[in-house]
Amino acid sequence: MTPLSGPETIAAVRAKQQDTILAFSSGKDSIAAWLELRESFENVYPFYLYGVPDLEFVDESLDYYERFFHTKILRYPHPSLHRKLRNFVFQPPENCLVIEQAMRMRMLPKFEYEDVRQSVVDKFDLPEETLYADGVRAADSPIRRLSILKHGSITWSQHKYHPVWDWKKADLVACLQKYGVKLPVDYKLFGRTFDGVDLRFLLPLKKHRPKDYKKVLDFFPLADLEIFRWEKANA
């Protein structure tokens, strides 16, 4: 079965709902998805999932996109943030007891994208089956391409769809240039959007955004070992 094209995907979802939710990473693909969706839906309700809260460079970008799209972007913790904390990633021994207590008090619950979608549905009193879009593109990886070719561009059971899945890089460039929208500073810092606490992100943050680097260490104190190992290996 051949998947629906991007425009066909949007049309199929629009036939079921007048508004849409968008998982907005601030990356080029999710920006393009937002630009496309706003042409078809009455309202687009975007949410951003943070890996570390209150990073200045993230807030600067989100503020820009809120002004550009004239729309508030909801902020929620990423499921991976709670997962890392629950698994004591980069945590010193003295933090582990606190985290264990937080888990016992249900302050660090396990949750998934579906839970975030449900939160947005509840907040805006949307129909219960409202789907959310993302910026997934088949060209990003063979695994994504195979998944979409197998399962299609809409997964009704998981309430999600991929409106720009068949876009190529040239399509993205043309779209962004057409609307004059900027990419986030992430691309200058890391060459991609921020989504981890490994050396790819820590080293540029420490060099160019020391205040944000300190905020990362507030949540993952031993992440500094990543840079320590790199410095020793490259001494």
Helical stretch count? 12
Gyration radius from CA atoms, angstroms: 19 Å
The low-pLDDT segments are: none
Q: Kindly give the count of domains.
A: 1
CATH homologous superfamily designation:
HUPs
Q: What fraction of residues sit in β-strands?
A: 5-15%
Protein architecture, described:
With 235 residues, the protein is of the alpha/beta class. The protein has a single domain, classed as HUPs (Rossmann fold), CATH 3.40.50. Helix content is 51%, strand content 10%. It contains twelve helices and six strands. It has a six-stranded mixed beta sheet, sandwiched between helices. Helix 2 crosses helix 8 (169-179) and helix 10 (199-208) crosses helix 11.
Q: Would you spell out the secondary-structure blueprint of this structure?
A:
Elements: H1 6-14, E1 19-23, H2 28-37, E2 43-50, H3 56-69, E3 74-77, H4 79-86, H5 93-104, H6 113-124, E4 132-133, H7 142-151, E5 154-155, E6 160-161, H8 169-179, H9 186-189, H10 199-208, H11 210-219, H12 224-233
Parallel strand pairs: 1-2, 1-4, 2-3, 4-6
Antiparallel strand pairs: 5-6
Helix pairs in contact: 2-8, 10-11
Pick out its properties.
Rossmann fold; 235 residues; 12 helices; 6 strands; globular; alpha/beta
Short description:
With 235 residues, this protein is an alpha/beta fold. The chain is 51% helix and 10% strand. The chain has a single domain, classed as HUPs (Rossmann fold), CATH 3.40.50.
